[in-house]
Amino acid sequence: MKQFFSILLVLIVASVSFAQNDLQPAAIVRLTKSEPITVKQLRTEVERMEKTTGRTLTAAEKRQVLDVMINEKLAIQAAERDKITVSDAEINQQIQQLRAGMVQSIGRQPTDAEFALAVKNETGLDVPAFRDMLRKQALTQKYLMSKKQDIFSSVKPPTEEEILNTYNLSQAEFVRPQTVRFSYIQVSFGNPSDKVKAKETIDRLAREMSGDPAKFDEIAVRSQTPNSGYQGGDGGYLPRNRQAAQRVGDEFINIAFSLKQGEVSKVIEGPRGYQIIKITETYSMKPLELTDIAQLGSRLTVRDYIGNVLLQQKQAAIVEKASQELVAELRTGSPFQIIESNINW
Questions:
Q1: ∠ CA 99-102-105 to the nearest 5 degrees?
Q2: Which end of the chain is least crowded, N or C, by CB within 10 Å?
Q3: Residue 37 placed within a domain
Q4: 97 HSE (CA, 13 A, CB side)
């Protein structure tokens, strides 16, 4: 019994000691106020980065993580000092943009649980912590823009010669694959019991249209009525490539490209529902010239696309330069201290 209590006491002492060490500062930032970065905060961020990258960070990389955390706190303290703020509406707008991106990948509005899972998988954060990260990033960006506006305004759009040179070096990349545009009727399912009912519904709709394109259109329009039990509409453009096949499945791709314009498919079983599609437009493979549309469904030409890419590259280089200048300015006078004795790399 004495030995048991001795072991228990050792475990309790070790646990308390570990918790106290977690609360020790890895660094202290004091540009406008004294604010610690605790060992626990540093460890959590390192672990998150390791999970994101799928590997163990080196000691030098862990030091870089700490430097980034210091730089962020310096920028946030400076932004608060200069009365720069980020509203909840701005963060909500970013969240909505991310959710809209998920709509394109899953074909519908994600639930809160689905969005939270996607955020967790991508960042390792729950939604409140993710919102806090977005707020810090937005605040830092606003502060950077306010202090280095002269550098950002110096960015010049790419010249015609730069665009042409880039196009000539990468013509092989500007090829539109064989592409179709399609309309769809879908009956979704989530579990086995839904699947049986969904199959009955899609089979009934298939019998009603009997492959008739006009009947297909009528049924697709009826999908907009309340409680129709199915969805319908424009499915957009589908290229014949590996990425699209991974997204919609090999069977869907093979059926879609076996149809002529105006033809209606048989019932297709997908991972989230049964579908019937109708091909509305077809495009053959084509090398793209500078004046061609870069992406079907838009007005963006190849020239515009290359110009945008080159401009983004210039802007990225300017952001890097401005960030380095700002960090150097914020670090002037040693407004922070790294507590080496509390860090165990």
A1: 165
A2: N
A3: no
A4: 7
